[in-house]
Amino acid sequence: WQVDSVTIAGCLPPTPELELTKTVGTDPGQCATTDAIAVAPGTDVTYCYTIQNTGDITVTTHDLVDDQLGTLLTGFVYNLPPGASAFITATTTILVDTVNEGSWTGTTLYGDSVTATDTAIVTVGFDVYLPIITNPSTITHLPATKPSLGWVPWLILGPMWVIGLRQKKGKG
Predict the structure, then answer these.
(1) Is the pTM of this model over 0.85?
(2) How far apart are the first and last CA of the chain?
(3) What confidence tens digit (pLDDT) does each residue in 91-106 have?
(4) Domains in the chain: how many in total?
């Protein structure tokens, strides 16, 4: 026999790849569909971290760290095959604007690891609604509810500012 040509076929090693999707909402019972919300101070928000294995090898061990909430998973054993996804949620009370990043690291049985990151944004604000009077003749005047104090309308602006008007009683 005689060999005219030789073909060498090689296999590429499997590649771990992950995609992290981080969302934020106010319903702790489900993952939200957005990565940015606006809430009032003191609101509980739930972050949802959804990891998808986009590689071609099963990821078996998981670590999840949030730069604001801290470590959420360490060495968590869970077989996540190619194409599969899983999620974890964390709920916290938000007092100030918060931009945070989640970082999910997955490791294969062979010790190969890969990290995916994503961010979510929570904006804290106040909604203040002040009426605009365009025709003062249409205003109905209400009688004072406590004649001894006079009519005391109050306008609250934010958590600390209170503006009040008190009618002074005339002498006579």
Answers:
(1) no
(2) 131
(3) 999 999 999 999 999 9
(4) 1
